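Entry 14. Ran structure prediction on the chain below.
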Amino acid sequence: MDRSLNRLHAVDRERAAEPTAESDSSDPVEWRDISVEPDQLGGVDAVVGDVTDRIRTHAGDPLTIETGAVRATLVGVPEVRIDDLVYGHHRRRLGDPTRPCALFDVENTSSAPINWTTRRTKFIGTDGYTYNRAHISLDPAQLGAGCYPSQVEIEPGCRARVITPVEQLPGPVGVAKVVQTVAVRGRPTSQRLTYNL
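Output, structure tokens:
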């Protein structure tokens, strides 16, 4: 799968940062477009559309798991360029600026808060080895409102979006499976969500 992400132009950043005209809670959240489509040799151009639509275009169909407590959709695990999404002091140790990143849309369908944390996300490579999230911090200000880079407590009936970069994978290895463990407040056991790509 060939997927990539490019830095957004300053104009796109300004436009994404502008508040929307209506703030009715039933309206969809406006997400920053962090995806791109390769259009030219040696470069990529920003493409219009929200991040979910763009990643679906590159990743195929999203995968949804519903339990008694959560409805979690793995939108995709595309290769994205993240050097403009990390804190400045992390750029030096980033190395390759392109990483696979899991994008989840999560809805709490239970009557208690749930905790979604990227520390509990594991990636199984096409080589059969287990990989962790990358030890870099994405800047929430670069992701947009409602999108979290590391952890979030989701109240009953509420939603959140989470982006989790994968550690640097060797050579031609891709992500074959994503496993997320979710803790629900008041329940003695966690729920394990397994997505086979």
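The chain is about 15% helix and 40% strand. Will compare against last week's run tomorrow.
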